[in-house]
Model the fold of this input.
Amino acid sequence: MLEAANIRKKFGGLVAVDGVDLEIGNGEIVGLIGPNGAGKTTLFNTITGVLEPEQETEITFNGEDIVALGTHEIARAGLLRTFQIVRVFGEMSVFENAVAGALFGTEESISQEEAEDRAREALAFVGLEDKADMQAENLPIAQQKQLELARAVASEPDLVLLDEIASGLTPGEIEELSDTIRRLRDELGISVFWIEHIMDAIMGTADRIIVLKSGEKIAEGTPEEIRNDQVVTEAYLGAEDES
Amino acid sequence: MVTISTLAALAVDGLAFGASLALLGVGITLVYGLGEVLNLAIGAFAVIAAILASLLIDQGMSLPVAIAGGLAFVGVFGLVVDRTLLSLVYRSDGEERILIGIFTTLGLTVLLEGVMVNYVSSQYSLPLGLDPIRVGAAVVTGTSVASIVIAAVVLAVLFLFLNRTFLGKATRTIFQDERGARLVGINPRKIRTLVFVLSVLVAGLAGVLAAARSNVSVATSFEFTTFALIVSIVGGVRSLVGAVVAGLLLGLINTMANFFVGSYFATIILFGAAIVFLLFRPEVMSS
Amino acid sequence: MSDFLPGGRKLALVGLLFVLAPLPVMGSGYFVGVLSRTLLFALFAIALNIVFGHNDQLFLFMGGLGGIGAYTTALIADSVGVSAWLALPVAAVIAGLIGLSVSWISARRSFTVILISILTLNLQLVFSEAFIGARGLTGGSTGFPYELFTLSGIAEAAGVPTAVVIYYVILAFFLAAMVLYIWLINSKYGIAFEAIREDEMAAESIGIDVVRYKSIAGFIAGVIIAIAGTLLAREATYITPSIFTFLAVDVIALVVLIVGGIRQTYGPIVGAVIVEAIEAILGTYAANWRTAIFGALLILLFLYFRSGVIVKAQEFLEDRDVSLGGGNGGTAAVDTGGDG
Done:
């Protein structure tokens, strides 16, 4: 589904992402972990067209080259994302947020009624259907994050990139969220690429984990393999003081 | 054919006009750099200083006293504006502050123009009464030379102040890093007041120099403001040196264009230059 | 009707009110002129509401675009020898394309609101300068009589002064612009505008083409402004560059929009009625202080009254348990002053 080779992104002299290869298959939940400053969010921004990658970068999505596409075109192609710091449209209602997601996130244009149907389904999926008429900025953070997810889901994407969606949540909320993410795959067939700091959440949910450090991929494997990987342990211990 | 002596005279006149532009640009840059308020009323301050000085001369005062009086009034008025209007603007920050800054200073310039038109509606000038100066074959006006010299001295003093004194260094610290400045115990608000008053004094001087060379009226104030904006756009809104260079350059170009293609095209060239710079180097206004 | 146009009945009511408005003052050319100007500045404010209120693009060259509309209409009608009715759409599209270009460039280059305002202010000055300078085309600062659209025939047939016919023409354009606005804000465009205004990055991330929507807003605003500018000259029956200066158009349109309330469907017309009433009173008692008072208004309104009359009135009535049909036209929630 998503195939990328040699993703590189420099800021001036600083190499933030340094030749990362990755592949996300149909129906996979892939975790992306790494110490602070490893380049995880930069990697997301590069994939979604927010940042322009270096020349040698190749990224294809469903077989289509997306390197030169704008963020909105990539979204329409079925690759949606959420943000590290939640970015719902605060002055709109919860329902309008989801409608906006449904209305603009597809290649073919859909009617208002169709968009509203999809929005209702997406809100029901994350459990926000009773909050539909609330103004989005009045939701607690945990629910704003669910709304951001619903907004992405409403466009019926193939792949969603989640950027630390579990951070700032209580253990109970994390449990619920992990369950939602599994259902995303199982019920809606949406693949997930997920940056997370909270290890319990991601280790229990992901099929496969990629570890990034200083812009480079240092390990990849099942959660079990990653947990026992000497290199990964060292990377985290070494970075402990910074975070 | 245009003789060398005409060109030399044009160049001096151009630099003299450029000196006023440079002062106006510096006025904009100082305030924007410190508090992200784009002072769209700067031309009104320039015009007030010039007209007041001219009126004081009519009252029988000598030229230097009248100019000092005009500038002093503008300085005090600037202080009042800073403590009242700008205090309200500084309550907000970021994009919001920039927007409120645009609207309040725009409103202020309209308000000042509207008030002044009722009292001082004719043309005013401040002839310095200097004789033309002969340099080889070229004859240049004494007023133009004096304008250049005065502007150069004032700018030099200003730069010395910013580079050598504690207050100046504190100002530059805030230019670069407002939070850092606060940490080392500098109160940005007080510095902003000082700098705003400085900026309107510099603008007032620009107005006085402009009035020494040609007529000034209330309607000139918006023209001054737009010239100041163009200078900051071309020079970079946070660069004082850039403002000076851009001011001189635009003054030269404008005066030459005025002579060769007429004033209508000259003005369009000036605005055109600003638009081109905005389109190709928009970072000058944001960085 | 109301399915296609939410709040259509309310608009019909407002329309009816303005259809009847000239009747008591039919004999007075002065009052018909005030009514016409009210609607014209409401038109300018509708354009500003779309492009600035909903899209954060502060267009400060409304005077210039209005002038482009008026002069181009006259030039086309004159040189091609066609009716001004045919020339006006062409001129409007030209102004629309100018608005579109400015928006397109600004959006492509991620200009902040301050950059757009300075860019358009400079364009305003170029246009003003060009209207004065291009004497061969515009008659310079002395201008020329502007009596296009052959309305005097209709006026004679109907037995009313030409100014009254002009008023109804303006009213028709005003109502058309209101219909367009209400439809726009309640459509897909309204949702896109609101998303873009709140968070451009998030809007892009869900598939909204920010550049495209901002350009569309710039085009629509340009078209409406050109029409308003042309009718402004027609109402004055004489065109000069002084009609289209920054002070004469932009400052007034800004005050109108802010008084009425940004992003309020009826903000432009409510604001225009108030501003024209102030103008009329000032014209009678303190004509010399007109400019000063509008300057002061601009400052005070923006510092203390940014939500506008409609919102303030609603708050006032709600406090007293009186409900007023929502004047808010669509997805846009009421912003009372950002997050400052």
User: Anything to note?
Assistant: Confidence is low (pLDDT under 50) at residues 324-340 of chain C. Strands of chain C lie at 144-145, 238-239. Chain C has 15 helices and two strands. The radius of gyration of chain C is 20 Å.
